[in-house]
Every structure is written in C-alpha cells, then in structure tokens.
C-alpha cells in the first residue's frame, strides 16, 4: 500500500518542484530583455532593463574554461537593478568560434590576447551606445584580466574582482577596486589582505573602504558567506555587494535586485534527475547478458593501456583536429580502448552487440544533451554544439565510442562489475594525468578534461547504468554514452592552439 502511494506521490512532487523551479527561472527574466550580438567576432549577450536607471555599461567576464552562462546570475541582478549589462565569451570558450593561443600564465601569451579582446568589446559598445563610462567585473582568471584592462582604459570607473588573485592593483590604479572572495577560499582571502598591504595600508580589514571614490582610489575587500570558487557566482550576497559597490562609485542609490537563480537551476536539475530515476524503475526488466572477465585480466588490460597509451602518443599521434587538447583526447581515448580490449582476455568476443534499441539510444541522448544539458547550458557552462564545434563532435566520436564500449563492458561483469568499471576509469584518469605530465605545455587542458570525465561518469554514466540494468541493452547504452561523452568534451573544453 505504502509502495503504491509513493509511486504517485514522489513523481508528482518532483514534477511540481521542476515546474516551480522553471517558473522562478523564467520569472527571473521579467523586466529584462536579453539579446545576443557580435562585437566583431566576439559573441556578446546584452541584458537590458525595461527601465534603464544608470548611464554606465557594466561588463562581466568569466573565468578560465567557463563561459557567459556562468555569469548569468550576476548579469541578471545588475540588469534588474537598472544597469545595461554585457557578458561575453573569451576566445576558445563558450560560443566563440575562434581558438585562443599562448600560455595563460604569461603576460605576452594568452593574457595579452584576452586583454585586447576585453578592450575591443568595451570600446565597441561604449561607442555604439554613446556611453563614456563602464564598470568591469571578472571572475577567477578574468579577475587578473580586468585589472590589466582597467589600467589601460580610462573609460573604466570601477573594477570588481571575484575570486581574485591578481597582482595588478596599485594605490591609484585601476579605479575603485572591490575584491570579493568566497568564505571557503582562504588562500584568496589572504591574498586580498596582502594586496592591500602592498599598497601601503597597515593592518587592512575586510569590509572597510580605503581611499576615496572622488579620486577613484577606493579599495575594499570582502568575503561572501558560505561560498566557494563557483558558488560565489550564484550567491545573492555577491549580487548585493557588487551592486552596492557600483552605487557607491556612481553616487546613485538604485534599489538592488538579488535573485537566487542558482538554487532554482540546481532544483530543476535535481528534480529532472530524480524523475529519470523514477521513470527507469518502471521500465520492464529484461535479461542482462553477463560477461566474465576476472580481476587479473581487468587489471592487466588497464595497466598496459594506461602506461603504453601516453608513451606511444608521445612519439606519434594522428592529426585530425587542429586543437591540441581535442586532438590528443581523440587519439588517447581510441588507443586506450584498443589496448584495453586487446589485453583484456576474452573481452571482444563477449561484446553483446545484438540488442540495439533505437528508442533507448535516442531517448538517452536527448535527455542527456538537450534536457539536462539545456539546464547546464543556460546556467552553468556552455553545453551547446555551435557551428565550430560540430566537426569536433563528430571526430571525437572516434575516441569516445570505443572508450565507453570498453568501460561499459565491465558493468555487465558477473562479479564486482561496478568495481572493475571504476578501476578502468581510475586507470584512464591516471593515464591522462601521465600524458599531461609528459607535455604539460601543450596538454594542460587535459586537467579540465579529467574534471569533465568525472562529471560525465557521476551523472550520465550513473543514469545510463540504471537503464542498462533494466533493459540489458549494452549496445544502446554504450553508444548513447559515447555520443554524450563526445558532446561533453566538444562543447565544454576550450579551443586551444599552442
């Protein structure tokens, strides 16, 4: 009786949560028009309040490996407060069609390109809108870039670094500096204290304004409660602090609008995730064809693949893509799967390739890339397959499908299948880390690819494995995972040329 009751109550509850979350996310856009433009070749999103109450433009820049989507919460808050606000994607990031190049750790490398790009976007829209003053906000990597830009551009009257680590702040340049770090970022909070000490302020304290807004020398550091490096971007406290600092700069007293769209986006994602879990339990259970690979063969295959893959590719790899990290991943994933199959005794013969189900495959790909992916694309990071990334997606399938076939094989093992699959994932990560160690200068983006793999396994592979246990359709699941993995890597990994 209770079980039948829960079958009705639980899906109803999660449907209501998803609807309420979606309603709040949509209503957060009320009073703001959103337009997508290009400043030369730079993709820009403009948030314009129905009633503009300020005569400045506010520019918001994302951090490394992020995109404009990650800054949406702050941009919306600024626009609803009354400021015309612009976000944009850096070269190689998000929806930008052009790659970036050079070392991000040196002034003459990628940093120079990004600073020039910020200046181009700012000057383009100041001229276009007939505005003479701007405030610029940057997160993480962009916190350094915006301060470099502000020192060169006299139109910038205020600079706000979020999760800030720059050394470019002096006593009188750039103008009106606010540094906001998360409470859970102790190293950056200490760095902020050191910055104020370096410009001659003795025993600096958080939440105290040093200098003057009149001569643009105002300096302040603050911490956002219960916030880490990413959560700080969704915090309503961050929105309040940022908007109030702009009020202090301009001398206006605009009523600050703070919206917690991060919470609603998380609830929407979580409710969709749970609805999928409930749906899977109602799929008629089919027989799962088991494989029989013992631990020794599993370990041997993975150890050989993890060692020889980066070693062989350090001598030769096939160049199918111009972007270093993407091309290497294609080669690495394919070769690892090939060696894994070759040295895992009996694995190829045991592949159950006779049970493909088009409905399962299509449903999983749509749910992963368009539904869950749609939430990620709007509020977390770009998950949209733009024109430039379409060929990358198709070519990455060459590596993504074999590796998902290899890992998925162990999930169907008679004994300890999850442990064997997890072991395979661990060795793959170690292999990628070793490759990054061998050639860090060109393959440093593999570090971010590893994070994407972990997120992919945590969400998409977990859900698809549940479907596998109900349907027994190895081929459908492995293919859907391969397509989703290729989609994830091709959309989220920055485009880089050495």
CATH architecture of the largest domain: 3-Layer(aba) Sandwich
Rg measurement, Å: 25 Å
- From the helix content, strand content and strand pairing, which structural class follows? alpha/beta
CATH class of the largest domain: Alpha Beta
Residue share in β-strands: 5-15%
CATH topology of the largest domain: Rossmann fold
Total tally of structural domains: 2
Structure write-up:
With 498 residues, the protein is α/β, with parallel strands linked by helices. The chain folds into two domains: 29-258, Rossmann fold (3-Layer(aba) Sandwich), CATH 3.40.50; 283-497, no CATH class. Helix content is 54%, strand content 11%. The chain contains 15 helices and ten strands. An eight-stranded mixed sheet has the order 1-2-4-3-6-7-8-9, with helices on both faces. Strands 5-10 form a two-stranded parallel sheet. Helix 7 (261-281) packs antiparallel against helix 10, helix 8 packs parallel to helix 12 and helix 10 (358-379) packs parallel to helix 15. The radius of gyration is 25 Å and the shape is globular. The mean pLDDT is 92.
Give the key terms.
single chain; 498 residues; alpha/beta; Rossmann fold; two-stranded parallel sheet; 15 helices; globular
Topology:
Elements: H1 2-27, E1 32-39, E2 42-49, E3 57-61, H2 72-81, E4 84-88, E5 100-101, H3 110-129, E6 134-139, H4 141-152, E7 156-162, E8 177-182, H5 186-198, E9 219-224, H6 236-250, H7 261-281, H8 295-313, H9 324-343, H10 358-379, H11 390-411, H12 417-438, H13 440-443, H14 446-471, H15 474-492, E10 496-497
Helix pairs in contact: 1-7, 2-6, 3-4, 7-10, 7-14, 8-9, 8-12, 9-11, 10-15, 11-12, 11-15, 12-14, 14-15
């Amino acid at each position: 009786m209770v079980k039948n009751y829960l079958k009705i109550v639980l899906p109803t509850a999660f449907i209501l949560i998803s609807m309420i979350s979606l309603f709040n996310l949509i209503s957060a856009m009320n009073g703001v028009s959103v337009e997508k433009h290009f400043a030369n070749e730079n993709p820009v999103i403009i948030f314009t309040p129905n009633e503009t109450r300020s005569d400045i433009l506010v520019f918001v820049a994302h951090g490394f490996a992020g995109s404009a989507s990650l800054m949406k919460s702050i941009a919306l808050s600024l626009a609803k407060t009354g400021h015309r606000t612009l976000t944009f994607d850096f070269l190689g990031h998000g929806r930008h069609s052009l790659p970036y190049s050079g070392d991000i750790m040196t002034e003459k490398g990628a940093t120079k390109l990004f600073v020039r790009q910020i200046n181009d976007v700012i000057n383009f829209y100041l001229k276009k809108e007939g505005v003479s003053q701007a405030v610029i906000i940057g997160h993480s990597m962009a916190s350094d870039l915006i301060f470099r830009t502000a020192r060169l551009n006299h139109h910038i009257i205020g600079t706000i670094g979020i999760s800030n680590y720059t050394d470019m702040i002096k006593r009188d340049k750039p103008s009106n500096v606010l540094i906001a770090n998360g409470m859970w970022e102790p190293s950056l909070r200490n760095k902020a204290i050191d910055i104020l000490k370096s410009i001659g302020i003795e025993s600096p304290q958080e939440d105290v304004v040093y200098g003057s807004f009149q001569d643009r020398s105002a300096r302040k550091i603050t911490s956002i409660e219960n916030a880490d490096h990413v959560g700080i971007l969704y915090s309503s406290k961050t929105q309040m602090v940022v908007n109030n600092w702009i009020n202090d700069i301009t001398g206006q007293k605009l009523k600050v609008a703070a919206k917690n769209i991060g919470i609603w986006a998380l609830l929407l994602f979580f409710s969709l995730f749970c609805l999928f879990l409930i749906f899977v339990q109602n799929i008629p259970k089919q027989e799962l064809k088991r494989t029989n690979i013992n631990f020794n063969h599993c370990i041997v295959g993975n150890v050989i693949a993890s060692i020889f893959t980066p070693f062989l590719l350090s001598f030769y790899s096939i160049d199918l893509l111009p972007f270093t990290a993407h091309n290497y991943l294609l080669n690495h994933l394919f070769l690892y799967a090939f060696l894994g199959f070759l040295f895992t005794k009996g694995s190829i013969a045991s592949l159950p390739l006779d049970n493909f189900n088009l409905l399962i495959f299509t449903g999983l790909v749509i749910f992963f890339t368009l539904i869950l992916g749609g939430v990620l694309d709007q509020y977390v990071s770009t998950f949209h397959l733009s024109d430039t990334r379409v060929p990358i997606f198709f070519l990455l399938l060459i590596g993504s499908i074999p590796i998902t076939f290899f890992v998925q094989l162990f999930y169907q093992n008679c004994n300890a299948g999850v442990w064997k699959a997890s072991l395979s994932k661990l060795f793959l990560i170690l292999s990628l880390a070793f490759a990054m160690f061998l050639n860090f200068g060109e393959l440093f983006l593999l570090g971010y690819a590893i994070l994407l793999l972990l997120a992919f396994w945590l969400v998409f592979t977990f859900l698809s494995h549940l479907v596998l246990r109900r349907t027994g359709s190895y081929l459908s699941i492995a293919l859907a995972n391969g397509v989703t993995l290729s989609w994830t890597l091709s959309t989220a990994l920055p485009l880089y040329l050495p």
